[in-house]
Amino acid sequence: MSVTDDGRYAYVSNTGSGTVSSFVIGRDGSMTLLDATAGAPGGESIDSALDRNSRHLYQLDAAGDKVRRLDG
Q1: What is the pLDDT of residue 15?
Q2: 8 A C-beta contact, residue 33 and residue 21
Q3: What is the C-alpha to C-alpha distance for residues 48 and 12, in angstroms, rounded to an integer?
Q4: Could you tell me which of 42, 44, 55, 3 has the C-alpha nearest to residue 26?
Q5: Each residue's pLDDT tens digit, 32-44
Q6: What single-letter DSSP state applies at residue 17?
Q7: Do residues 58 and 49 touch, judged by C-beta distance below 8 A?
Q8: What is the largest CA-CA distance in the chain?
């Protein structure tokens, strides 16, 4: 899971489907689903990271041994 610098959004890798889900994080720490398929980089997305500005999400694809960038 990757969380934006402001702590308001989270992105979760769905390894089985090769998709990424997005969530909004409440002030109390609760998470609400925004989009079950916010991105579909394909492959086996096993990990993710945001750049320092939380502008781009990078997904590690274990099947293709690649890092993919999803623009946010």
Answers
A1: 82
A2: yes
A3: 8
A4: 3
A5: 999 888 877 667 7
A6: T
A7: yes
A8: 38
